[in-house]
Design the sequence.
């Protein structure tokens, strides 16, 4: 599987966030997103546990992709069976910040308040967030904060990769 790169030649990482106990539809969407990301050559990062996190990793692995799990505790065995690279933080929910900062863009699938927290951290940091049947937040053009809504897993992946590349380009131009 060919991995796509960011502006610095490193693998493009897309963070996928969502609940640990989601409805079946969210699990299906997450697994499809994982497969689409892997086929596109992106690396998947997630919280490494069950629910949406496990489904996205399962989809990515089935398509030959690479997965990263940013774990809340210090036990690599806590990672779901589809995580290639478990990152133990010992930070509990604070690991949500590490997860969204790891991704060049974020795809949010369904989710509860932990997902909302991750969305807030990502948007506050200028990381693009693509939503797939997740929180509906009002658009704030004055703050340039909004969730870009996708209508399918393929659309979410396409939008996330494009947003990640656009973000990289802006950062590279700023560094010049």
Sequence:
């Amino acid at each position: 599987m060919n991995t796509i790169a960011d502006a610095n030649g490193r693998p493009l990482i897309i963070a996928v966030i969502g609940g640990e106990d989601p409805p079946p539809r969210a699990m299906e969407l997450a697994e499809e997103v994982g497969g689409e990301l892997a086929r596109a050559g992106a690396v998947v990062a997630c919280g490494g546990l069950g629910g949406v996190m496990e489904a996205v990793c399962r989809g990515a692995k089935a398509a030959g992709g690479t997965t990263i799990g940013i774990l809340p505790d210090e036990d690599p065995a806590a990672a779901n069976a589809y995580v290639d690279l478990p990152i133990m933080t010992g930070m509990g929910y604070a690991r949500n910040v590490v997860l969204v900062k790891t991704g060049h863009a974020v795809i949010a699938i369904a989710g509860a308040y932990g997902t909302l927290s991750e969305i807030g951290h990502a948007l506050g940091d200028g990381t693009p967030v693509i939503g797939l049947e997740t929180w509906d937040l009002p658009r704030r053009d004055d703050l340039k904060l909004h969730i870009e809504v996708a209508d399918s897993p393929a659309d979410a992946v396409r939008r996330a990769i494009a947003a990640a590349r656009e973000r990289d380009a802006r950062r590279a131009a700023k560094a010049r």
Summary: The CA atoms of residues 5 and 11 lie 4 Å apart. Strands lie at 13-18, 43-46, 67-71, 85-88, 105-109, 129-132, 147-149. Residues 153-175 form the longest helix (23 residues).
